[in-house]
Amino acid sequence: MAKLILLRHFLSQWNKENKFSGWTDVPLSTEGMAAAPAQTAKLSLAPDVVFTSPLSRNKTTTWLVLDQLGKQSVFLRPGEEPADRADVPVYVTETLNERSYGLLEGVNKDEAKRDYGEEQLHLWRRSWDVAPPEGESLEDVYQRIVPFFQDYVEPRLKVGQNVMMVGSHNSLRALVKYVEKISNEDIAQYEIPFGGIIIYDLDEDLAVAKKEVK
Q: Which CATH superfamily, name and number, covers 22-78+96-213?
């Protein structure tokens, strides 16, 4: 039975400053980097393969976790193979980027609430198909990430590989929606904390047999 591990990146500097990050490449905060040992300890096994995005908060989280697990990581593009089989291949793809927040990127969330109103801001952040100005909705993220998951991740799961995907909040929420078949309405309430881990045991049809949240 294959395992699918979803890991949200650790606290970034803009997360600490309560700003919308989106596609902006923001590094992890000092506190985020310090969280790696405790969060990694919650994993009972090392993945066979990892997928992440080119955003440094995701790549650094990936490197920190694999280092804590005593594994050498090698970053590749999808379709490439590592030269050393002792390495854990980490495939980097923009499809795992956070949603674009458009004009909200870099804006403090409290200031955005003041400028746009709490109701409008909640609609942009949590609705299924309403995007912030010049940004992406969760549906947009779902439409870019699910085909990639079907093409590159599902074949590995079907042959029994344990796959870890390290991403941002909305890229992972889109994956959770697909894997768990959550409705458009119910996904609005789904939250994953910084460094949060979801582990799925998947049967041969890739249906969820067991779920753990750490």
A: Phosphoglycerate mutase-like (3.40.50.1240)
CA 161 – CA 141 distance, rounded (Å): 25
Assess whether 118 carries a catalytic annotation. Answer: no
**Structure confidence by residue, pLDDT tens digits, 57-112:** 999 999 999 999 999 888 999 888 887 776 899 999 999 999 999 999 999 999 99
- Label the pairing between strands 208-213 and 197-202: antiparallel
Indicate if 98 belongs to the active site.
yes
- The catalytic residue among 17, 31, 98, 180 is 98
**Sequence ranges of the domains in the chain:** 22-78+96-213
The pTM (predicted TM-score) of the whole model is 0.95
| Over residues 35-52, mean pLDDT | 95
Any idea what DSSP says for residue 103? Answer: G
